[in-house]
Specification:
By secondary structure, this protein is of the alpha/beta class. It contains 8 helices and 10 strands.
Length: 228
């Protein structure tokens, strides 16, 4: 037979009372079953990336309770799902970007491949920033926002380059073009001072893609033609 501690205390007290003795058994206070979550006082984590993805959050925000995200940054659908799943709150903040933090060129990949993975590593060594997005629409938004916030020029690798260029050219600060070969890049640089190009990677190899990137970046930051 199992007898709990409270019943044993009552039995002992009754026996002592019958013997004319004062009970010296101290009844322990009942412990509370309510456990309060400690307040961590953790400061919000500030993210300066222009595209907030699930992969980025899993890498940088796994222990965060709240985030500060720069104005204009794109949060991908998978990123929003991650934030909801992990109950992480966030808000946007204005953040001036210094010249030291500003990347001259950004590569945005909407159509990944093995050759592009190698290209990502190559341009990163040049000082470019690289983002991977889920489709052409998201790539266009990311490119436009990036030019407005942090970057001098953008390359978008997408299966729908004409659509991306058209979407981006709705914004006055963007001079976008769809290109298919190195000669196209040279021409649109001269005629438009292009600051966003969209390329269909198709079955292009690493060396061809790299040559296109080198041609685009040659000569420094994009400049709009006179009287543009």
């Amino acid at each position: 037979m199992n007898i709990d501690a409270q019943a044993i205390d009552d039995i002992v007290a009754g026996v002592l009372s019958q013997l004319g003795m004062t009970s010296t058994v101290a009844r322990a206070p009942r412990s509370s079953t309510t456990i309060q979550k400690p307040q961590s006082g953790q400061q919000p984590l500030r993210l300066s990336e222009i595209v907030i993805t699930e992969e980025l959050l899993s890498e940088k925000a796994v222990s965060a309770e709240s985030l500060l995200i720069i104005q204009g940054a794109v949060i991908t659908p998978s990123g929003r799902d991650w934030l909801r799943k992990h109950d992480v709150t966030w808000k946007r903040v204005n953040e001036a970007v210094t010249s030291a933090e500003k990347a001259l060129w950004r590569l945005i990949v909407a159509t990944p491949s093995e050759a592009i993975d190698k290209l990502n590593d190559e341009v990163t060594r040049w000082g470019w920033s690289v983002d991977c997005v889920s489709g052409s629409e998201e790539a266009a938004v990311c490119g436009v926002t990036s030019l407005n916030e942090q970057t001098e020029g953008v390359v978008i690798l997408t299966a729908e380059p004409e659509r991306v260029a058209c979407r981006a050219n709705r914004h006055s600060h963007v001079r976008a073009a769809s290109v298919a070969q190195v000669a196209d890049i040279t021409r649109v640089k001269q005629q438009l001072g292009v600051n966003l190009i969209a390329v269909c990677p198709g079955d292009r190899g690493f060396f061809e893609l790299r040559n296109m990137m080198k041609t685009l970046a040659a000569g420094g930051p994009p400049q709009a033609p006179e009287n543009w």
